[in-house]
Task: structure prediction
Amino acid sequence: MSDFKFQGACWTVGDYIPTDQIIKSHRFFLPMAEIAKFVLEDENPRFAAGVQRGDVLVAGRHFGQSSGRAIAVKALQATGISCIVAESFARTFYRNAFEVGLPIVEIPGIGAAVREGDVLAVDVPGGEVAIERTGVALRGPRTDPFLLDMLRAGGVIAIGSRLAGSP
Amino acid sequence: MNLVESILARASGRKSVEPGEIVIAEVDRMIMHDLSGYMTARVYDEKVSKPLKHPDRVIMVFDHLFSPPREQEAEVLKSGREWAAKYGIRLLDCGNGNIHNAVARNGFIGPGMVVVGSDSHTPVHGALGAFAVAVGNDCHAGMVFPHGKAWFRVPSTVRIELSGTLRAGTTPRDVALWLVSRIGEDGAVYKALEFGGPFIEALGLFDRWLFPLITVDVGAKCGYIEPDEKVFEFARAANAMQCWSGLEIAPRHERRPEAVLTYDVSSIEPQVACPPTVGNVKPVSEVAGKSVQWAEIGGHGGGRVEDIRMLAQVLGGKSVHPAVRLNVVPSSRAVFKQALDEGLVQVLHAAGALWFPPSTGSNQSVNMGAMAAGEAMISTHSRNFPGRNGSADASMYLGSALTVAASALRGCLTDVREML
Result:
């Protein structure tokens, strides 16, 4: 979909999930396609087995806390999800997501409003989510234009020179 | 401007900065460990085709591995060594200590610096008056390596003012753990935490260390203590004062933090963070009696000489409980030397403790510290998520060195005040 507006069925996980639980450290040395099969293996074993390209992950509070490893974001990206919606994100996870080009958006109240499998329409720039089953629409903060610019470029590496103001 | 605002203004070539602004700042020091270094090097080699701009500002420390247990880990270290040699960056190889203590002890961190690292406890260097932030591999590979810069949103600042005197049996680490439960695991997301007040000012550098250490656990971007003569003395001895100039820090009465949180530490009991998260903090007295098979002094905030002294204070002349293995992991070579000089190695050896090389010890059980289902450990580590140390059905408890010592003696979680 255009400019980071997505529609897809959702998978749900709870509050305070550390990056250790997104992908365990003993999986790091596998190829990324293999790593994708173990994402959230303890938190929601259905997810890696059933996720379809374009699905949405819905998480609770402070998603991606603890270690700031970017591989947690890259492993989620490798599952084919379009974006992540959470009550809130840990700051290293938030930063890493935009830096590797995975759209994410903070929507307070999302945890209680959705059931796994609900179809969501997610507007990342506008900070909005509409839930098809209930007709409920929820709002969070709009996404910073600086971060949207990074997403459009596909991550920080693509615009590193421009940001640094050097060739 | 406060300390982090003035550092960011200086590093981004601006007269002043405001919370919420995005700045591109010159990075004075970038640190990475064996695991993050391996992954960052891979991203850089695969996706970035520009030379590394300031190799002298990058430090790699092998700390999760002190001696590779398998070929796979040996390969990780070999490729790290080759990468460091290829780009001319400084490597502190196995046995130098955990990343943060090793770089601080070796003079790579000083007041006023912009410090980045992929380890999430990088903000600990705020104890030395640095603006220190954890950022990801792609930022290191795409900005710090080729350009010597990184982007930052200027954080708003919350001041945490601590006063009072500790009760016997309560240590600065108990205060830090207690603060995590007070502030909450997502209670300070994106903030800078300024720790101050008479309690903080009276602490030595490596006791202050424990406060910026916890900022990640409450969601904050960084934490710091305004450097004073104690810090300057350490930094001068380490020859690390080069960034402490050109900063325009306003006097405290002119600054307007977003909030000021004031706490009295005088009634805090010994605390322990129980599984499954660092925020699940309880007084030790509430969970006393839970049996432990492992006890450890080590980790990014542990393994200080202060911790080893506390261990010896409780265990001297006694023996570790036969059902417990007590591991002691000095945070750096300097700390091990100090423990040798003070006779602590001998005292703890006689009590049955096992000495390990300076490293991160059982952090993530990369080189040691895996537990079987049903086992439990009490340690001075910084993380207790299930599955981080072996079985997801094992339990990690985080407490002070006094609590580790008392529990190792009794074979179960113990409130040290029963022994004082």
